[in-house]
Amino acid sequence: MNDATTKSRMTIGKVARRSGVGVETVRFYERNGLIPEPMRTDSGYRQYPEGIVSRILFIRRAKDLGFTLKEIKELLSLRFQPGARCADVRAQAEAKIAEMEEKIRTLESMKAALVRLTMSCRSDGPVSECPILEALDHDEHITDSSSA
């Protein structure tokens, strides 16, 4: 690598610091194809281009919105896919929203079931008569979605 190329490149440590992630995270993203494999110096050190920090920040923000690494990889591929449309990205976001709404419904059902069990507990009885433990011991469907 010549000096001009080397100066415009960053070590993995610098990339990690500028991105706010650990070195292992940068390596993980590389292994999983979220960031391209960087050039290496003659001594084997990774040398990342300046733009990699923006890509890692994109990945972090997408994770903050609940996207999985697989979904982020799909979003990144859409960004660079000829002919991809904003509607393709919107469809990904809408699918993520639907998934979140389902998780919320499931959590609400779980919460309602736990509230019912907690309300049935007198608190002053022996643990052998605890309705919460009884319900967990029996093969019954505790989280009945129709009652949530």
Question: What percent of residues are in strands?
Answer: 5-15%
Report the mean per-residue pLDDT as an integer. 89
Distance between the termini: 63 Å
Q: Provide the gyration radius in Å.
A: 25 Å
Going by CATH, the architecture of the largest domain would be Orthogonal Bundle
Order of strands across the widest beta sheet? 1-3-2
Please work out how many helical segments DSSP would assign: 7
CATH topology (fold) name of the largest domain: Multidrug-efflux Transporter Regulator, Chain: A, Domain 2
User: From N to C, what is the helix and strand string?
Assistant: HEHHEEHHHH
Total number of distinct structural domains: 2
Instruction: Report the sheet with the most strands, covering strand number, pairing sense and barrel closure.
Output: 3 strands, antiparallel
What is the structure about, briefly put?
The protein is mainly alpha-helical. It has 2 domains: 82 residues, Multidrug-efflux Transporter Regulator, Chain: A, Domain 2 (Orthogonal Bundle), CATH 1.10.1660; 44 residues, no CATH class.
Break the fold down into its secondary structure elements and pairings.
Layout: H1 3-7, E1 9-10, H2 12-19, H3 23-31, E2 39-40, E3 46-49, H4 52-64, H5 69-80, H6 86-119, H7 131-137
Antiparallel strand pairs: 1-3, 2-3
